[in-house]
C-alpha cells in the first residue's frame, strides 16, 4: 500500500509542457537532449504531420523525412516544468550557430492539471473516431454499389421483357 502511495505521489508531481511548434527535421531524441539540460524528463510525444502533407511534400521534391507538428513533454517535477516553460517560451532554441534550429523559437506552455493519461486518452479517442469514419465511408460505398448493381439487374430484366414482347 505504501509503494502504491509513493507511486501516486510521484505521478502527481509530474508536469506536462505543450510545444505548439516543432521545427522541421527535429526528432524526439534531439528534443529530449535539448530539454534534459533544464530538468529530468519522463515521457515525450511528438504528433506526426498529416500523411497527405508529407506525401505532397515528397512529390514536390522536398525532404522525404518525417516531420512533427506539435509535442508534449512530461517533466518529473511540475515546478521544473513550469520554470522551463516560462523561461524558454519565445526564446531562441540556440545551440551552435550551424545548428538547423538555431534561429527557431520555443513555443511552450505549461498545462496545469493535465496528466499523461489525458493525452493518451485523447489520442485513442481520435484514432477510434477516424476508424469509425472510415468504416462508415466503406459501408456507404457498399450500399451505393449494391443499389447500382440492383438497378443494372432491373434494367436488364426490363429490356429482356421488352425484347420478348417485341417478338
TrEMBL record:
UniProt GO BP: endonucleolytic cleavage in 5'-ETS of tricistronic rRNA transcript (SSU-rRNA, 5.8S rRNA, LSU-rRNA); endonucleolytic cleavage in ITS1 to separate SSU-rRNA from 5.8S rRNA and LSU-rRNA from tricistronic rRNA transcript (SSU-rRNA, 5.8S rRNA, LSU-rRNA); endonucleolytic cleavage to generate mature 5'-end of SSU-rRNA from (SSU-rRNA, 5.8S rRNA, LSU-rRNA); small-subunit processome assembly
Transmembrane segments: none
Keyword Cell membrane: no
GO cellular component: nucleolus
Cellular location(s): Nucleus, Nucleolus
InterPro entries documented for this protein: ABT1/Esf2, ABT1/ESF2_RRM, Nucleotide-bd_a/b_plait_sf, RBD_domain_sf, RRM_dom
PANTHER family documented for this protein: ACTIVATOR OF BASAL TRANSCRIPTION 1
Database matches in CDD domains: RRM_ABT1_like (cd12263)
Superkingdom of origin: Eukaryota
Protein name: RRM domain-containing protein
Every RRM domain range: 15-97
Keyword entries, A-Z: Nucleus, RNA-binding
Pfam families: RRM_1
Family stated for the protein in its record: Belongs to the ESF2/ABP1 family.
Amino acid at each position: 500500500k505504501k509503494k502504491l502511495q509513493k507511486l501516486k505521489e510521484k505521478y502527481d508531481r509530474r508536469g506536462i509542457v505543450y510545444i505548439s511548434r516543432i521545427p522541421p527535421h527535429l526528432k524526439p531524441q534531439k528534443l529530449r537532449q535539448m530539454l534534459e539540460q533544464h530538468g529530468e524528463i519522463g515521457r515525450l510525444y511528438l504528433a506526426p504531420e498529416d500523411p497527405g502533407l508529407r506525401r505532397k511534400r515528397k512529390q514536390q521534391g522536398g525532404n522525404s523525412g518525417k516531420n512533427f507538428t506539435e509535442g508534449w513533454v512530461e517533466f518529473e517535477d511540475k515546478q521544473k516544468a513550469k520554470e522551463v516553460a516560462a523561461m524558454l517560451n519565445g526564446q531562441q532554441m540556440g545551440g551552435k550557430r550551424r545548428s538547423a534550429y538555431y534561429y527557431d523559437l520555443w513555443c511552450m506552455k505549461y498545462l496545469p492539471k493535465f496528466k499523461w493519461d489525458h493525452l493518451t486518452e485523447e489520442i485513442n479517442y481520435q484514432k477510434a473516431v477516424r476508424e469509425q469514419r472510415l468504416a462508415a465511408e466503406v459501408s456507404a460505398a457498399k450500399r451505393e454499389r449494391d443499389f447500382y448493381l440492383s438497378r443494372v439487374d432491373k434494367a436488364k430484366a426490363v429490356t429482356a421483357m421488352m425484347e420478348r414482347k417485341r417478338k
